[in-house]
Amino acid sequence: MGNAVICSIQRGIYIAILFICFFGCQKENLNTNADPSDKLALDSLVATKKHIVTWEEITVKAYARGENLKYEWYTNHGSMVALDSVTVLYWACPTCEGLNVIECTVSNEFGSISDTVMIQVDPDHVP
Amino acid sequence: MSHKFLLLIPVFAILSIKGFGQCCSAGNPLGSNGINDGLPVKEWQFMTSYRHSLSKQYYHKDHEVDVPLVEKSYYDYQSLSIGYGILKWMNINAEIGYFYNKTQILEPGQATDEIRAKGIGDLAVNLRFLPVKSLRKYSQLIVSGGVRIPVGAFDEQIDGVTVPVSLQPSSGALKINTSFYYSTPVISPDFSINSFALYEYSNTIEEGYFIYQYGDYFQFSGGMQYNVKKLLSFLLNLKYEFRGKDQRENEMVVESSGSHLILVSPQITYNFKRGWSTMLLSDLPVYKFVHGEQLTNSYAVQLSLYKRIIFINPFKN
Description:
The complex is a heterodimer.
Chain A: H1 2-33, E1 40-47, E2 51-53, E3 58-66, E4 70-75, E5 79-84, E6 87-91, E7 98-108, E8 111-122
Parallel strand pairs in A: 2-8
Antiparallel strand pairs in A: 1-3, 3-6, 4-7, 5-6, 7-8
Chain B: H1 3-8, H2 10-16, E1 44-61, E2 63-65, E3 70-87, E4 90-106, E5 114-120, E6 123-132, E7 140-149, E8 157-158, E9 161-162, E10 175-186, E11 188-202, E12 205-207, E13 210-212, E14 217-228, E15 232-243, E16 259-271, E17 276-309
C-alpha cells in the first residue's frame, strides 16, 4: 500500500517534470521562432523588368512585413511616382541611360531597412 | 541716376537667367544678379527678382522631336540679392532664392498629372572687381569671381518618392565661376555696346548613389543699349551658350547632355525717383543644338525691383 502510494507520487512527479519540460521547451522554441524581422522585414524588391529602354515604364513593388510601415523610394537617375503604398512606376529619359539604382527604405518604430534593385536603361533607338 | 549706372545694368540681363537643355526640367537660374557698377564704399544694394521659365520642346540635335510621357516643365522662382561696396574697386554680392514650384507636367493618361517640388535654391556669392575704373568716360571693365553653394533642398519627395534630380530646387553641386564684362559708349553717351564672357565649373556631386558632374558652362554675349533721358533704357543682347557633356559614376559620359544655344535677350529698365529701379527682361532661344535628346528651354522672363541705400548713422554728425 505504502509502496503503491510512493510509486504514484513518483509517477506524478515524473509526469509533472515531463509536463514542465515539454511546455517549458515549447515556450523556449516559441521564443526562438519569434524572429525579430517579424517586426520589420523587407523580403524583396521586385521590378517587372530590369532591362528597359528610355521612356519605357515598369513597376517596382516592395514586399515587406511589419506593422505601421512607412515606405520611401529613391532613384539616382530617372523618374518615379507612387502607384500605391508599396508600388512605384519608374521610367527614364535619355539623360538617364545607364545602370540605375532604385532603393526602397521601409521603416517603423523598430527601425528601418533598405533594399535596392538595379535597372539597366538603354537608348530607345539609334537616331 | 548717372549714365555710368545705366551702362552696367546690361550685366544683369546677361547673368540672370540660364536655361539649358536637360532631362526633364526647365533648368536652374544662374544665381547671380550680375549688377556690378562698382558700388560706392558702404553702399548697399537690395534686389528682388521673379522668374518664370518654360521648357516644352524636346530636341535631337537641332530639330524638335516627339517624346512620350513628358509634356512640359516650368519653374517660378523668386530671388533676393544683397550687394555691398567693400572698397572702391571691389564689392560683394550674395543671392538666394526660393522655388515656388519646379514642375514637370506629364502627358494625359499617366499615373499622375505632374511631379512638383519647391524649396530653397542655391546660394550664390560673388566678388566683383573693377581693375580699371574707367578706360574712357563711362566705360567699365569688370572682373568677377564667385561660387554657388548647394544649400537648398535636394531630397524633396512626393508620397514618399524622391522627385527626379532635375526637379530638385538645389542643383546639388558646388560651382565656381569667373566672368569678364566690358561696356563702352559709342557715337553718344546714350548709346553703348557691351560684351560679356562667363565660365562656370561644376564640382562632382556625391550624394549616396548619385555621383554626377555637370558639364562645363560657357557663355559669351554682345549687345547694345540705348538710354532715354536717364529714366528709361533699352537693351538687346545676343548670347551664345555652350554646355559640355555631363559625367556619371566611373567617368561615364552622359551622351544626352551638352548643348549649343543662341538666344536673344531684350530688356527694358525704368529708373524711378529715389533710387528705385525696375527691369523686365527675357531670354528667347533662336537656335538650339543638343546632343542626344533633351528638353530645351522655350523662354524665360524676369521682373526685378531694386534699390540702393546708404545707411546713415543718426548718432554721427
